[in-house]
Amino acid sequence: MTTTDAATDLRTRADAHLMATYGPPRAVFKRGQGSVLFDADEQPWLDFLSGLAVTSLGHAHPAVTEAVARQSATLVHTSNLFLTEPAVTLAERLAEVTGWADARVFFAQCGATANEAAIKLARRHGKQQHPDKVRVVALEGSFHGRTLATLEATGQPAKHVPFAPLAGFVDHVPHDDPDALTAAVGDDTCAVLLEVVQGEGGVRPVPAAVLAAARAACDAHGALLVVDEVQTGMGRTGPFFAFQDTDVVPDVLTVAKALANGLPIGACIARGAAGEVFGPGDHATTFGGNPVTCAAAVAVIDTIQDQGLLEQAATRGRRLRGALEALIGSSPLAAGVRGRGLLLGLELSAPLAAELEAACRERHLVVNAVAADVLRLAPPLTVSREEIDVAVGVITEALTAVAARHTTD
Ligand SMILES: Cc1ncc(COP(=O)(O)O)c(C=O)c1O
After folding, report:
1. How far is the CA of 231 from the centre of ligand 1 (A)?
2. Whether the CB of 115 sits within 6 Å of ligand 1
3. Suppose 299 and one of 67, 169, 338, 391 were both cysteines; which one would form an S-S bond, judging by CB atoms 3.0 to 4.6 Å apart?
């Protein structure tokens, strides 16, 4: 069987036995190294998506590989009836990188389950003040996950429709209207939940005035400010967490995706009184704090710190942004650049992002159309200058190809 036949065979087997939640697969990858993925034919592809902002240290990073190998040969699981060292160490390291000396952490498996924990924590906190204090204010265009509570918090009505009716405890306000947010928060609000940069919503930064209004409204009404850093966390936008570049400090922070560079983990981190809300029996999950995933996450934090990756990512982010901005005059399709650090969106002048994604894919560059008119780029923090130049060259060619198709149509 040729490698191409093997890839086709894998797709057929997938069609037979995997639920059709993800649409047709775009390629079959066998292995990865740094910023590069290799397909079934051993052909290299430049990965400027990092598995949806997950493999931020690049593929097969030796520090993560070593931590996983060491821990999996030592102890893989005990349940939360017992303590293991990696979970405690990771909680301490998260306290260090948030800068919250009194941080307390609940470990989940992914972004949605970290947010689910945060929503339950906020409702528990609200109910300690008043039985009706359970409502959440979130932003239109947000994405917080696909469990029922996080789906409801997600400000994208089309995603609600197939599962309606939902519980009806979330009010959404525009992502850029501080007055609407202030007006929506009341004494029955237990939390405001938001992203600093909306990732799945199209790489849209939330204005500083909205963040400030959220903090003030939470303080005025005894609600918790929950910042979802599932996509922006772990250096993706510059600092360890995107809120650290703002004037606002949340009560609760959620992180997942890049935390263990590809192993499934999420964390809900709370400070002050918010960290004291949950007691025994309030919340739990069998795999939370798993020693292997926690050991991998500790290795990720060590690597980011030891190799100065926050600083490097900031420099590379500026290079990538500058190169994308230079396309604006030269291609009629390139209209703007938004985002922070290495989470960037190339805005198009027409809803052709899916075509542009496909044109990049034909040229073995992995990026994605995060909105009809926005192409998302999220390369690893370890991306090299040369890789940035190659990727922007491919995008330039792809823009020309897509634009040509549409001027001759
Ligand atoms: C900001 C944000 N929150 C939550 C989630 C859900 O994370 P997961 O898919 O790991 O459940 C995502 C996923 O894209 C996200 O971007």
Report:
1. 7
2. yes
3. 67
CA distance 334 to 39: 29
Contact 142, 175 (CB under 8 A): yes
- Residue 94 neighbours by CB distance under 10 Å: 24
What are the pLDDT tens digits along the chain (409 aa)? 677 788 888 999 999 999 999 988 889 999 999 999 999 899 999 999 999 999 999 999 999 999 999 999 999 999 999 999 999 999 999 999 999 999 999 999 999 999 999 999 999 999 999 999 999 999 999 999 999 999 999 999 999 999 999 999 999 999 999 999 999 999 999 999 999 999 999 999 999 999 999 999 999 999 999 999 999 999 999 999 999 999 999 999 999 999 999 999 999 999 999 999 999 999 999 999 999 999 999 999 999 999 999 999 999 999 999 999 999 989 999 999 999 999 999 999 999 999 999 999 999 999 999 999 999 999 999 999 999 999 999 999 999 999 999 985 5
H or E element: which one contains 26? none
CA of 198, closest atom in ligand 1:
1
DSSP reduced 3-state for 177? coil
Residue 246 Cβ inside 6 Å of ligand 1? The answer reads no
The residues near 281 (Cβ < 8 Å, ≥ 6 apart) are none
- Ligand 1 centroid – CA 110 distance (Å): 7
Residue nearest (by alpha carbon) to ligand 1 atom 3: 144
Is residue 307 classed exposed, middle or buried when 0-12, 13-18 and 19+ CB atoms within 10 A define those classes?
middle
- Which of 240-270 are b and which e, b meaning 16 or more Cβ less than 10 Å from the residue's Cβ? bbbbbebebbbbbbbbbbbbbbbbbbbbbbb
CA–CA gap between residue 160 and residue 146 (Å, rounded): 10
Q: Please tell me whether the overall predicted TM-score, pTM, comes out greater than 0.90 for this model.
A: yes
The answer, yes or no, to whether any atom of ligand 1 lies below 6 A from the CB of 144, is yes
Residues whose CB is less than 8 angstroms from the CB of residue 124 and which lie 6 or more positions away in sequence, other chains included: 277, 278, 282
